Amino acid sequence: MLYGVCPGAAMQEFVPMDATDIEILAALQADGRMTNRDLGQLVNLSEAACSRRVSDLVRTGTIRRFTAEINPDAVGLGLRVCLLVRMKATSDDELDAFEKAVQLTPTIVRCHKLLGEIDYLMLVVAKDLTEFDKIYKEHVLQLPGVDRTTSLAALSNVKVGLQLPTQMMKT
Predict the structure, then answer these.
(1) How far is it, in rounded angstroms, from Cα 171 to Cα 152?
(2) C-beta atoms surrounding 104 within 10 Å
(3) Spatial CA neighbour of 166 closest among 68, 63, 67, 71
(4) For residues 85 and 121, what is the distance between their CA atoms, to the nearest angstrom?
(5) Which of 111, 109, 121, 120 is nearest to 77 (CA)?
(6) pTM to 2 decimals?
(7) Cα 22 to Cα 19: distance, rounded to the nearest angstrom
(8) How does DSSP assign the chain, residue by residue?
């Protein structure tokens, strides 16, 4: 089984869905606070049937969680830096120690294990470059097993979101 730092990054078995499940997923991606009544009307199900479907999608892990997407600029975390991380060694113990340390670092908001020359891609948020420099020195460089990093600061967001393309989902 593959594993990664991001919750749910591990490969999961395909969960069969029908067209109604996919409609529900599309609607909830657009508005996760939609009531079962409104959702049921949208997909032509009763409120109770819709509630059961959503519960099943949560139980099977198809829906990981319901959350709010916060605008980082609005809360003073407008600097986003992508870090490419290359590890010194790649034993399971060393990678596990690195991944556990990443989980405990709140300013690292995303981390993906990669194939190829670079081992990890991380997204770090900060107030400004001064704060990022402090995070980099006090946290990133202290992560176990790091050999080298490359920092790439985002100038602007071209596309941001977590919505998956429902038209490509299997039934």
Answers:
(1) 38
(2) 9
(3) 63
(4) 6
(5) 109
(6) 0.79
(7) 5
(8) ----SSTT-S--------HHHHHHHHHHHH-TT--HHHHHHHHT--HHHHHHHHHHHHHTTSS--------GGGGT--EEEEEEEEES---HHHHHHHHHHHHT-TTEEEEEE-SSS--EEEEEEESSHHHHHHHIIIIITTSTTEEEEEEEE-S--S-------GGG---
Q: How far apart are CA 115 and CA 112, in angstroms?
A: 10
pLDDT bin (cut points 50, 70, 90) of residue 163 is: confident
Instruction: Write out pLDDT tens, residues 106-158.
Output: 999 999 999 999 999 999 999 999 999 999 999 999 999 999 999 999 998 88
At position 80, the amino acid (one-letter code) is R
**Which amino acid makes up residue 48?**
A
Task: For residues 148 and 83, give the distance between their C-alpha atoms in angstroms, rounded to a whole number.
Answer: 10
The total of other beta-carbon atoms located within 10 Å of residue 88's CB is: 12
- pLDDT tens digits for range 45-81: 999 999 999 999 999 999 999 988 888 999 999 999 9
